[in-house]
Amino acid sequence: MNLSNEETPEGAVALFSIKQADGTIISRTVKRGAAYALTVDQALEATVQVQNGLPDQTAEVIFMYCDQNLIKAKEGNCCPPPLVCDDFSESLYIGEAQLFLTWESLFPVKGTLLFNFIASFDPTDNPSATIKVERFKKPTVVRNVPLKVSDSDNSDIPFVLAVDDIRKVTVTASEIAPFISRLIFNLCHQEKSAATCCDEPLKCENSLPYYQPAVPSQNIKIWESFIPVKGTFSIANEYDGTLTLNIDFFNEKTFERILGPGEGFAITAKEVKAITIRLTPLSTQFGYFYFQYCIQDIPLQKTCKASCCPKPLHCYFDFQSYNHPMDEVLPLCISKIPVDGEIQFWIEGLPQQRTKVIIKRFGKPDIVKTIQGSKIFAVRTTDLEGVFVQLSNGTPENSISIVLCIQDQVPLNHVCCPEPVKCEFYSTYFFIPDLEYPLNKNIALWESTEPVKGTFSIFNDSQDGVEMTVKMSYKNGCFSTRTLKSEEGFIITDEGIISVSVRFPSENPEANRDLIFESCTQNILDPCKKDHCCPQPLLCQDIITETYDIRRNQNYLLWHTEFPAEAIMLFYLFDGESATIIIERYNKSTITETILMDKPITLAIDHIKNVFVKVNSESMTGSVAMELCMQEELPLKGDENQWPCKY
């Protein structure tokens, strides 16, 4: 509960109370401009009463919560799930109260706590913030965060603290300007698991830009951990000067990387203890650095619970790096532990620029690709160790954008089941306007070193009647093709795929050619010898396609799946009077539905094989869009998997 500075009279205080099931009332007094968080169990109601104001005055109270119903533990192997609040965040202006954030928990929790101090102050003072973490059975942690890291009168400082056994957290500040300084916080936390249950890991992720003045800074510690974690960290330097990144590990080893202007870098590792940066910008330029993380704590394995299984960490990450020097091998991302997944690249440069992309893997040969000019493509692989690039024959005006979908490898015992790596990328990741694709050449959009099952959506966004031929290649050497006219698209679901490529067969060098590509893939797990391990169905939550100017009475194939699938499908006819949706199914009768212009319909159907659209005879042509959330149907005896769809 935050008693806001705005619309709240000076001197007012709030009485924040929580009533528990046994009648106990927990009350805390909150000053104007301060916030108080309480983590409790058996809660029935929360109330607030603002005091010390005139009868005709009002106050502004901001209230947020994260709750979970109580589940009693039963006999046997059932454990109550712990309370998880992975995005408990708010922004508050620092008012007249020096103690402006307090968080109290009545039972032990662990968490990754982000504090972003955006402060203004007198440069002759020595402003600072203090974070104090009191713990139930472990020593108290106190960290002082200097807010004056340069000669400027303002700062934007992040500090992230990973800690366990939390009982109470307080945040104070001194020598800062009230009411214009503020704090952004994110308390990603989880209740400690019961002693007889497996420790559940907590995943936390966040990303924010942080601005700094245009003068050299001292060392700024932005991350510190008191518990073992694994994860991916990314930082981008948006200054004309340099940024020095230093990482300390619990094993006393260190890592350093100096980022030039515009460069970005990501590292995946475990046992990260502290991260420190130093900025050396030019004296005439203001800028910022961009810090991201996706981490998970590493619970201690309980020897008395042989059934406890380690959980892999799955992360999506995107970052950009640009202005790379020529003829130098530069690391874009490295991993200290083997990870599996997919990497999407968008390389921008002059037509004559050559970019050598080197994907290093643990115990496996490098994947090397040489790209000329600008291009977008994706590579899926295993045992990833790092991505390096070397540019030549170009200019400093170049950039490389990367999207990572990665998951670490975890050891499995005789009772643990493997988890597939699922990667779903929408058109916003892969659609780059004004990127001219070459004519009469095979253009690889997506490649994999292992066969996968997946759903792919491809749309020919070319103009001037340029056709596009799509080719799907398979592990067994087979391939399939489909030719799309301008502004035609389709979706295909299949398994055993190792590459997707396109070709624009045109003799007109001035022809416009472009495309939109979406993918949802999952590695195929080896047949499991453990009786309790079930195969994992392919799940794709949001795949879209559209097609323009379908001739009347033509059965146009929108989606084909090589194995039975169930789906929730949204259809929208935006040109033409009406159309018929035809859904062919495996071992079941065909379903047809009529759709009218500007009146979308949603269908939930199983055993899907083909989805056609036919524009009815009252219109010459029609245009339709389809959005689907689908899941593979598996022959699971007596076990029906549920699947989520979000619209």
Short synopsis of the structure:
The protein is an all-beta fold and 647 residues long.
Q: Please estimate the helix content.
A: under 10%
How many alpha or pi helices? 1
Strand content: over 45%
> What structural class results from the helix and strand content?
mainly beta
**Mean pLDDT reading:** 89
Work out the number of β strands.
39
Q: Termini separation (Å)?
A: 31 Å
Major β-sheet annotation: 22 strands, mixed
Indicate the low-confidence ranges by residue numbers.
Answer: none
Shape: globular
Write down the Rg.
28 Å
Folded structure, characterized:
The protein has 647 residues and is mainly β. The strands form four sheets. The protein has a 22-stranded mixed β-sheet that branches. Strands 4, 7, 8, 9, 10, 11, 12, 13, 15, 17, 18 and 20 form a twelve-stranded mixed β-sheet that branches. A three-stranded antiparallel β-sheet has the order 3-2-5, with no helix packed on it. A hairpin with a 5-residue loop joins strand 10 and strand 11. The longest helix is centred in the middle third of the chain and has 4 residues. The mean pLDDT is 89.
